[in-house]
Amino acid sequence: MSKVEGRGVAVVTGASAGIGAAYAERLAARGFDLVVVARDAAKLSALAEKVRGGTGRSVEVLAADLTRKADLAVVEERLRSDPAITLLLNNAGIAGGGPLVSADPDQMEAMLDLNIVAPMRLALAAAPGFAARGGTIINVASIVPLIVERFPGVYGSTKAFLLHFSQSLHAELGSKGVRVQAVLPGATATDLWDKSGLPLANLPPEIVMETGAMVDAALAGLDQGELVTIPSLPDVADWEAFEAARHALGPNLSRRVPAARLSAQAASAA
């Protein structure tokens, strides 16, 4: 087996199945050694054996529940202390739907811990080293924040954080040699749907992308230098127009006086 030239170590969270497992296989094929992170040590070990056999890369299993502070701290310390790490993939997450008025606050808090707190802390642990030596941070978000009226709830809000956080990381670290990418998949064929109470079989098949195809498209976007990659979007100009409209708001978002349309006189005339 010919071994691809090494590209350092990639830390992949949520690697036991689905998107995370697909990323692990693709990154190893690209020459990365791996540290794979998830709660299920048995599934991680099976993945590690498969990846080692298929690519010859080194794969370390790190079983951790990222909603537990002690486990999260172990992964943070590894990111801070290991100069061989050149890529962090924040993929671990959980989904959940249903009306906000009937949501379980404890379950929603657990979602915030995994979908927001964990990736934030891991990225901040990796950032100083990456800023010094170069590195890549990939945050797997979702298209849901872009169509919030169709998918209201806490889950979409957590993914909106990841999009904004990725843009913030890029604004601060892009000039320091740190690559940042937010990946916004649409519906993807993983077991996340069944776990969230919305079986994949209930979705129209024409909107569901296979996991491997989604990851391949996301990595192609990374290769092309995209900060935000929407794997199903045919024309990147649509996203660029969306961003241009957002930037156009800038000069009027903070001014000394209220807008004329909101003045007392305008209000009284109405």
Automatic annotation (TrEMBL):
The keyword Oxidoreductase applies. CDD domains: SDR_c (cd05233). It comes from Kaistia geumhonensis. This is Short-subunit dehydrogenase. The lineage of its organism: Bacteria, Pseudomonadati, Pseudomonadota, Alphaproteobacteria, Hyphomicrobiales. Belongs to the short-chain dehydrogenases/reductases (SDR) family. Pfam families: adh_short. Keywords: Oxidoreductase. InterPro entries: NAD(P)-bd_dom_sf (IPR036291), SDR_fam (IPR002347).
